[in-house]
Amino acid sequence: MNLSRRTFIASAALAPVACGVPLSYERGIPIAAPKPTPTVRPPQIGQEWSYIKKDVFNGKTLGLVTERISKIGPNIVIDRRDQDGGMLPSEIQTSWGMVATDTQWSRLLNFNPSLPLWPLELSTDWSKQFTTKYSVAGYSDSRLNWQEYMSVQGWEKITVPAGEFVALRFQNLINYESSDANKVDCIRKETVWFAPQIGRWVAREASGSYQIQGQIGVTILEGGYQWQLTSCK
Questions:
Q1: What CA–CA distance (Å, rounded) separates 119 from 121?
Q2: Is residue 117 assigned to a domain?
């Protein structure tokens, strides 16, 4: 995979998204950039966030996940539990905001080098493209291409079940090489509302698409999901 920035953005922009779905997409109220620029809350053991996850295509609630910082050392470990208290795979960051093991996908992904979870600069005109390799947990010998374009959309005031927050809205456009050789032109889109005051995002939406090798022109939609913060401490 060797896409230019222009080609990558154009191909991602053509990917279809869900329309006419029962669950509304998240909306915030645009506001002027805060002055001074907020600083990101540093990590501490015991910090915790809970999120409700929904399917944007049918509005169905898929569960509640609670994330808690359990370790700060060479790596930052965020333990995760489901609504029944069952343990889920942990998120691992090499440094605050740089993810090496990402739990937000249908399978656990390991990145090397790690990827930023939020913009490196909390500025309305910031954007950057990142290229890395990833492997699916349990298949570390297979390193696949991952290209991600992160761009800030602006500051917004947004209301979620946990309350009202001032958040930086940004978008990730991702083009990745699938571990399934039959899948090509794999694209994911994410819109994220990141609240520096809690050191985490308060809302997030993701959808994706791919094509089948030999059937170019037929685009298949993947699941579309929405997460909202319900509580934090």
A1: 5
A2: no
Residue 88 covered by a domain: no
| Regions of the chain with pLDDT less than 50 | 1-22
Host domain of residue 153: 5-66+124-232
| Total domains, the chain | 1
pLDDT, position 26: 78
CB 208 within 8 A of CB 185: no
Q: What CA–CA distance (Å, rounded) separates 204 from 53?
A: 9
What pLDDT does residue 27 have? 85
What count of other Cβ atoms lies within 10 Å of the Cβ of residue 32? Answer: 8
Give the separation between CA 12 and CA 26, rounded to whole angstroms: 20
What length does the chain have? 233
Q: Residue 21 domain-assigned?
A: yes
23 token code pair = 């669950």
Determine the Cα–Cα distance for residues 11 and 188; give it in Å rounded to an integer.
Answer: 11
For 124-156, the pLDDT digits (tens) are 999 999 999 999 988 878 899 999 999 999 999
Residue 216 in any domain: the answer is: yes
Q: Distance (Å, rounded) from C-alpha 25 to C-alpha 219? A: 22
> Whose structure tokens read 């998240």?
26
